[in-house]
Amino acid sequence: MRSKFVAMVIALGTVGLAGCATAPTSFPVQVSRYHYDAVAQRGTITVEPLPGGSVASIEYKTYAAAVEAELLRAGFTSPPPGTRGDYLATVAFSRAERPLPPKRSPFSIGIGGGSFSGGRNGGVGLGGGVSFPIGGQRDRVGIVTELSVRIRHGADAVWEGQAQSLTDTSAPNVDTQGIAERLSRALFTGFPGESGRTIEVK
Measuring CA to CA, how many Å separate 3 from each of 99, 116, 135? Predict the structure, then answer.
């Protein structure tokens, strides 16, 4: 009977684990914007890499496509094929690994030394003995990604923004497209944004 009771308690603990709080796999995006011109007038816009970037890079094209989608959503338009836009948006990004703290569950199960008189055949004891945490201790790795965009009108820079976030490598949206879309969406939230202020976008 003791073994059945212990098995039931462990099973209940496992069910509770599904709803327990665990460490997040993605974190808010920190966004900073700066502008000398509120960009009240929209127009056509061309997206290019910063000098030294690689247009041929598949990763760059993923970020550029995500940025262009948000610019079009903000009211800009694509220039006719073979022409340059009224505005030029230059895009740069960087990625670096960073260790994360291990996930730990707040639950623990104790099995051991007390006694409980619960029936004709005696009792079982739970508590006061060995306890162990539920959850892993394995090292976790995150990816710090930064996206930078500068918008020029002629020779003048009229808007600049940076978005940075940390993503657990076990997160479902850790792929390049998922991160590019998430950072771009956060960067252009409320475009052009409040100049000189850093905000967090979830």
Answer: 40, 14, 23
How many angstroms separate the CA atoms of 67 and 89, rounded? 9
Residue of 121, 107, 122, 174 lying closest to 145 (CA atoms): 174
Contact 63, 184 (CB under 8 A): yes
DSSP strands (E only) in the chain: 29-35, 45-49, 87-100, 108-111, 130-133, 140-153, 156-168, 198-201
pLDDT in tens, 75-88: 999 999 999 999 99
- What confidence tens digit (pLDDT) does each residue in 176-195 have? 999 999 999 999 999 999 99
Q: Which two tokens stand for residue 182?
A: 């998430």
Strand partners, 91: 49, 149
Can you read off the two tokens belonging to residue 106?
């707040």
Place of tokens 């684990």: 17
In whole angstroms, what is the distance from residue 135 CA to residue 149 CA? 40
SS3 at position 157: strand
